[in-house]
Amino acid sequence: MTPVPDIEPRVAEIRNALHRANHRYYVLDDPEISDAEYDGLMRELIALETAHPDLVTDDSPTQRVGTPLDDAFAPVTHLERMFSLDNVESVDELEAWQARLARALGRDPAGYVCEQKIDGLAVSITYADGRLVRAATRGDGQVGEDITANVRTIDAVPLRLLGTPPELVEVRGEIYMPVAAFAALNARQAELGQKPYVNPRNTAAGSVRQKDPAKTAERALSIWLYQVGRVTGGPELATQWESLQWLADLGLRVNPASERVDDLVAIEAYVVRTEKGRHANDYEIDGVVVKVDDLGEQREVGYTAKSPRWAVAYKLPPEEKTTTLERIEINVGRTGAVTPFAVLEPVFVGGVTITNATLHNEGEIHRKDVRPGDTVIVRRAGDVIPEVVGPVVSKRPTDTPQWHMPAKCPFCGNPIVLPEGEAKARCTGGFTCPSRLREYLYHFASRGAMDIEGLGYKTVDMLLTEGLIKDPADIFTLDPEDLLAFEGWGEVSVANLLGAIDGAKDRPLGRLLTALGIDHVGGTVARQLAARFLSLPALMEASEEEIAGIEGIGPEIAGSVAMWSRDEDNRNLVARLEAAGVRLVDPEPEPAGATASELAGLSFVVTGTLDGFSRAGAKAEIEQRGGKVTGSVSGKTAAVIAGASPGSKLAKADSLGIPVLDEAGFDLLLAEGPGILEK
Ligand code: IVH
Question: Average model confidence (pLDDT) for the chain?
Fold first, then answer.
């Protein structure tokens, strides 16, 4: 069909108007037309494109959300390497950096650009003739993953550049999730009874790694652009400051907090100001990036193997505040472990309001000597998990008693005991303890276990309150009539839940074993046990010696499994699961490495400070994929993940010939699995 002459100019006109409107709204935060006008134009464009499909182009504002692609995340070789930054953590280190620059140049640099260091996900976006053609993650700096389809869904990323775009330009920036959007997302999670997301950065990273762009589009992501990569046919740029201006002229979102400064004193003032105003922004920052302004000077000082000499990241320390520890309460977890936590007078620290923080166990409470009523120092460890650092003893009222673990569980009234040689106390109430049962059921249905969609805390609580379930086997015999009686539940939601439950009857044995929550049996061990025994009844009849005979399984795990298997209640539970139609036998071993990111059977050492992960966070990422994290490097270590200031573990890894991954390599490992270690 040949395009109709009158239609074509109108289509172009509407598209231009929509591109301009997007720029005003998402980039400049200064809308020019009303939402109603915008919607009207969009509707007209959709109607015209539907009637004339051959007029549809890739950069049309209607084309943000595409269909899932098979080649999503394909490797992309960057036109120019994406370097990372060296960190400095004090004014002294900053001065040392500046002194090195002055030595290399034979004079002080002419000036610097100070920028906020955005805590998000680095991205490279390429525009050819002004049209977005490719977006990629940093990956290892040379090769990243293609995330074009997902980045196109981010409204703050123009599909078409404004002004006079060059033939080709590759720009770099940071995708992030605004703090408000993150809070809204977690509020929704809580409503659904789902676990909250940990932090905006990881959530943003997870969002751009969705297979389906429609999923990414649901997340309110945004972007700041801060660096020009390869350019063909563009203007002569002399400074970083000009580059930022040019990016803005092209309609890209450039952070207005950036400043050009003359000297070290001004850099230090910028750092102080940034740290003070740290949480006034709608996005998280973890430092200040200082760049030599003059691009000629940048070329003169050049790069080390890993990072430019002309730029440095000044890391901001985790923020600390004081507040009152109102009281200490306890949680009973799915295994019966009792964990004390601090109930705090709400305090805003590290960009969030903290109301409680784990205290781990009674020993830890006494070691830190924190007591109910104390004024305490709190911070977010790795800027994420709230932590009580310690008491301000000078403010303690005299005669403040120490805290002790209650003798009886407040949820079920059964004794709390501290097993010989262990740090964690336990509730002895078994599944008669409502707190333990709730946590157990939630775990049973969770992602790494039976993966029953829709069975989060909210639904679990409802089923428990209504007395519909008393143990996991009851999940499989729920009566739709009972569910339909619940407020807000209709045919569809009931059918969805029952469908998800039905699907869970057929999970691989490794999943079922994980779900059963046997002490010391996490995902990795569960899969090892499943691979060896192929059947739950066979495992339950196995001797401790047989179990301990499996490579990598020690006497502690074997003892725990054997004890669990002998327990009458557990035997009953398994019989009832079987009667309800839950599969207890694998027809054949589950293939190892079921997903590309599987790390089962591999052990890792994490050392040094990582940019985007706390130590615990890095460990959790590895363990979620079935891997193990150990404290020391040995011949069995699959790889060492090394952040800044890694220490002696690196030398040990080198001497043993064990691969060492930097943070980008670690990202890649998480995204693509252990295959990358062989390259
Ligand atoms: S410039 C060669 N500027 O920090 C220069 N990076 O540790 C490389 N980042 O991978 C980057 N804000 O993801 C630069 N204003 C900023 C930044 C920034 C955040 C991230 C970026 C980079 C990492 C380096």
Answer: 90
